[in-house]
Amino acid sequence: MRKIIVTGSAGLIGSESARHFAAERYRVIGIDNDMRSQFFGPEASTQKTRDELVQTVRDYEHHDLDIRDADKVMALFREQGNEIAAVIHTAAQPSHDWAARDPQTDFTVNANGTLNLLEAARACCPEAPFVFTSTNKVYGDTPNRLPLRELPLRWEIAEGHEYEQGISETMSIDYTKHSLFGASKAAADLLVQEYGRYFGMPTVCFRGGCLTGPAHAGAELHGFLSYLMICTVTGKPYRVFGYNGKQVRDNIHSADLVDAFAAFIRAPRVAEVYNIGGSRHSNCSILEAINLCEEISGKRLTWKYEEANRIGDHIWWISDVRKFQQHYPEWRFRYGLREILEEIYEAVKRG
Q1: DSSP H or E segment with residue 31
Q2: Cα distances (angstroms) measured from residue 128 to each of 67, 117, 174, 198, 274
Q3: Is the torsion defined by CA of 280, 284, 288, 289 positive or negative?
Q4: C-alpha distances in Å from residue 198, one per residue of 74, 88, 186, 202, 311
Q5: Per-residue pLDDT reduced to its tens digit, 170-216
Q6: Coil, strand or helix at 34
C-alpha cells in the first residue's frame, strides 16, 4: 500500500491531509506530539483530533514523535522505506508572538525539524514529493510598504498596482522585519527549496495566508477566524490590535489547501514556491469578519481596540494564486468566506 507521511497530523492542515489521503487509499503515517497545547494552552490541544483520527480514519497510524529528534525521524522513515509516496510537512510553531518569548524552541521546531525531515526524505524516499506548509511571513513586513488607502471597513491597495490581484512570489524576502517566527519559517522555506535544487528532489513551499476551517483550534495568538468565532459565540472578549481593525487577510479553507497539495503530488515539480490563500476570492478585514461572525451567529461580539499593532503584522495581505492555477489548472476553490465561517460556527456550537 502507498504510504504518505503527514507531520502535525492532528493540527488543522495535517488532519485535513490525513483524511483526504486516507480516502484516496493511502496508508497515512501521522506524526504529532501535541506541542500546540504547550504553545497556546490546553484549550488549543490537538488531542481530541488525534483520537478521532485513530478511531475513525482507516489505515491511519499515529506516532507521538518530536520532529526535532533527528534519530527518531530517520528511524521512522527507514521503517517505512520505499513505500513512502509523499511527505506533507505541516508541523510548526505557528505564532510570531510566541516565537519572541522562546526563540530557541521556535527555531528548532521550524527550521531544524524541517531539516531533519528533508534529510530523512533524501535518504529514504528522494523521489517522493515533499510538501512544506510555509507562510506569507517569509516576506516580513514588506507588504506594509505597499501604497494602501484607508476605506470605511478595510485597507486596500492602490488601484492599478501590480499586486492589485494579490501579492505574488516576486516580492523580495530581504531587507524586512520578519519576526523571529518569520525568520525560522524562512530558513525552513529556503532549505526545502535548496533540497529541491541541489539534490533534484520534488519539493514545494506553499506560502499560506490565513489557513482555516472547522477543525482549527483557534487561540488568541493563532487562528484568526476560528478564535474570532469562538469569542462571538461564547461571549469571550476579543482584542483588536492596531490599524483601526481594518487589516486585511485572505482566508483559505483547509480542504482547498489540501486539494492543492494533492494536485502537486499527482504532478510534482522541483523546488517550486507558491503563494496560496483565499486571494480575491475569499478575504476580509477584522471589522468585516466581526460583522459576518455576528450575522451568522446572531450574537454580538464584545471586543476592545488596542492601538499598538502586533509586531510583524501585515496591514494588507491578499495572495496572488495565479502561478499555482497556471501550473495546476484543474484546481479550484470550493469555499468562499461565508461558507468557511458557517462551518466554523457549526463546529464551535458542537464544542
Answers
A1: strand 27-31
A2: 19, 12, 30, 16, 19
A3: positive
A4: 20, 20, 18, 11, 34
A5: 999 999 999 999 999 999 999 999 999 999 999 999 999 999 999 87
A6: coil
